[in-house]
């Protein structure tokens, strides 16, 4: 993955995409309760929470508790707090998905076009059942239908385009004696595919017949698998604060793999952050606890932490939110949505450092207290040391690469969490 990973939020109108995006970022996409509020895809920066390298007790001189490197961890981008690092990641709010998008309904063509740039999808599902398939207000709608038709739309879009050309494509394939990967990649590159993605698709299927002999059912299987490989998807079951959500959650949970599902209440996260900003509550984004003035007074602080008094209405809302969301689910869930998307993508955080002995970036004069782990890049599963080098250093010629302990690592070695993920790149002739 040479460019930065991009995660797209998709879902029917009013499922809560913009609210989710707001809850994950500091930006403010326009929020509204009717279809197509978001006309243009909104890019924004979200923050992926990862355990930072500074908290690793296996690193030289870092075995104490808390590890001393933590106090000097100063990310150039994002932040690091007690060893939990927030790494910026690009998010895209893709609007216009309604049933029939592959035929151009809604903002269908534009929707599908925007989708091509995404490495993984977060499908925001309104699990309260208060919006129908088109996003209009209703009651008792079954959101498990959304999960099914969403995937179906993408499959039909890819399949439709492929079938239109299948005759000519097959003839050419035979004439030039191409491999199945070459022929399919020729068709799928427009979806942001790579030869590796196509190869993985075909590996999973292990088809016996050559491409020119595939029947329609086989082609459909190929497209289905390709869509799963190219667009790994997390289901964000949103609006869990709503009283109707429970039965819908159980139904979807029975049908889907548990690792694909995250429960969330985007609006609760937005609300809590707003109250915290206004000085009504203490709330660390993504955490289970929210403290009010009364809570702190009850804990023995007569000043109530300096928090403002809430009126009856506001107090009730906060209490409801605690009961319906925080106590039942442990958090508003929005951070887990991003974490899960990074997991399905297999993202590996890599920490490039200038000095492999100190983990610093060689800032002059900073000495013993020099900041460490300034940089962190997210690379895809299966990336090598060389891939990361080129991503960070571009075309600069590589002399060699060092990992922890000053050991040299080969450029073909894989990077993974805890392995070859703290690297120092040396430019020049080896
Ligand atoms: N109850 C509830 N409502 C939500 C939640 N998230 C979003 N909404 C509401 O759903 C409506 C549509 O939200 P929006 O983010 O604009 O949806 P989009 O069209 O998918 O971008 C708005 O009225 C939001 O306030 C949630 O977690 N719980
Ligand atoms: Mg929107």
TrEMBL record:
**TM helices/strands, residue ranges:** none
All copies of the OBG-type G domain together span 5-284
Provide this UniProt record's keywords sorted from A to Z. GTP-binding, Nucleotide-binding
Q: Which GO terms describe its molecular function?
A: ATP hydrolysis activity; GTP binding
Q: Name one GO cellular component term.
A: cytoplasm
- Note the CDD domains from the entry: TGS_Obg, Ygr210
**Keyword Nucleotide-binding recorded:** yes
The protein's name: OBG-type G domain-containing protein
Q: Which organism is it from?
A: Meristemomyces frigidus
